[in-house]
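Example record

One chain of 352 residues, shown exactly as stored in the release files.
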Amino acid sequence: MKKLVTLILLAGILTVLPYQVYALDLGNFGKIVSVVSEHEKTKKELQYYNFDGRADLGNHFREKYGVDNNPEKNELIQRVSKNLFNSISKTEPVTPEYSIFINQKKEFNAFCSLGHNVSVNTGAIDFLNYNEDELAFLLSHEFRHGQGDHSIKSYNKTVPLTVLQQIFAGNNARVDIMTKVAGNYLVAKEATLPQEWEADNYGFTYAVDAGYNPGAGAALWTRVKEKFGDNHQNFFGDILNPNDHPTNGQRIKNYDTKLTEYSNNVVKFNGSTLFINGKNWYNPEKTGSMSAQERGYLIAGMLARVYHSKQAPSAGVEDNQIVITYGSARETISAIGNEDAQAIAARFNQIK
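Predicted structure tokens for this chain:
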């Protein structure tokens, strides 16, 4: 079990790549057969833990990473999960049933592994300040990994790549190093990276269809980027140590595009100013716990819901809150900053 877990967990997505076999001399057919046989054995183990042994794997994760039984956090995660599953099940079966727990790790992370075992770091909930919309995007991303069966698919994609690495790697140290570099790049770019984009794109639909803020994906990764940077690598670094996840900036841009499209191309946020139909409406300001850009994406998401509905909106003010009504629905925005709420509402009604 420990050996398997070492193989399958990597930054929130299972990716199996037994690099230790690089040292083998595959100069003869027998050694090639040996490598292929080892891959087949591993595939059978993965299939077991993806189905019959999934409860055993989930229990192992709980023992390895600990369980946070905080009632507020668990209630939040279970509520978000239920809402997302209701959304997903409208178009695809949610089977087998997911096993979800909050682990005791303090870092910002979450993962979905074999057998629909999903875990959220307690530190991720703290980092997002319990923001339900942003947590929904975090979980919807992981649920897509599960729905897409990315764990097994990742491994199946790496098998021919790693076997080719071993066939072409020889005793020449320079050739061996370059073979590893080329194979490592292909695995990241052709297996893991496309699955990450798939998880983001499907996750947007899962979360928004469940009623969560369409701007929360961009807001989530804005918060991450502001804290940890863009995790961008130059070309040389990318080749030697390929980034198997999109950069934080790339994720923000992708969610930003989806947000505008969802609004029927009415709402646009450039990081500082919110535009409606190409006209300047509002410059969000930061709060004590949220930057102006993160808050701007959440407000943009509220507006996206308004214009996605194609119902004529109008804005008013209640208790210093900007209230936008459209049909029987309404969105409420706190008027934080120096500008008068009445002036913001009046400008909305002029350019809507």
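Notes: Residues 6-28, 173-190, 233-242 have pLDDT under 50 and may be disordered.
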